[in-house]
Write a structure and sequence with these properties.
- The chain has about 290 residues and is α/β, with parallel strands linked by helices.
- It folds into two domains: about 60 residues; about 210 residues, Vaccinia Virus protein VP39 (Rossmann fold, 3-Layer(aba) Sandwich).
- The chain contains twelve helices and nine strands.
- The strands form two sheets. Strands 5-4-3-6-7-9-8 form a seven-stranded mixed sheet, with helices on both faces. A two-stranded antiparallel ribbon has the order 1-2.
- Strand 4, helix 8 and strand 5 form a beta-alpha-beta unit.
Length: about 290
Amino acid sequence: MAPATLADTLAGVRRQLADGGIPEAAREARLLVGGLLGLDAAAFISGGERALTEAEAGLVAAAVARRLDREPVYRILGRRPFFGLTLMLSPDTLEPRPDTEILVERLIPIAEEIVAMKGRCRVLDLGTGTGAIVLALVDAVPGVFGTGTDISPGALETARANAQLNGVSDRFEALESDWFSAVSGEYDIIVSNPPYIRSAVVDGLDDEVRRFDPRRALDGGDDGLEAYRAIASGATGHLAPGGVVGLEIGFDQKEQVTELMKSNGFQLIEAARDLGGNDRVLVFSAG
């Protein structure tokens, strides 16, 4: 039997994913095959008749089996794009979602303004995971220096590797810390995408999330607000004058988180919704 061509392989993967109940099977097939074989969109057009090697065919078949078992595409590939960066993933890190890019977008003008006034802007990313938020800010705004904290040594190792991969390691440091426990000094921006899902809901999440994202990056306690309490109570002592706190929230948490921050001396200065129209980002100033 002749080896399968790239075009035939792509069509076959699309069919398998669709038959397996995977949404957006055509898009995912391109992501999976292209990512595994190092191909861009043009290669699918110009190289469709190229025959896959036996090793390539085996690589694709194994990846399809993993996706049909509900492992997310980017976890299979081991990396994903985020705000112009390429981020490596690990079992210790949450996979960054496009909704989190909205938080980065809202903070960039603030960081630029602080750099213009002070010459530099210090950013503290609590529960940094892959480093997505802080590394995106460091990359986007010259003059931003970032610290990413996490309780997971594995996550911090991944964040350091991502800083190196994206050429910003000279302006990034990783710190093992349970929220503010090991943090010292003041920061111009304190940011976090903390665990905010209620404990009782976690086990009912889609397989792609429940089985492959670390639970402690998802579980926000009985009411989903445990992390926000820790952030609200600790931020005052580490926020520089004129600084802000930027938070990603669950779709139904705007009022609760706003009241929690207010009770700790903060005021809401901006709120933003995600692409689905849900409340997703809150930005606070002190006093």
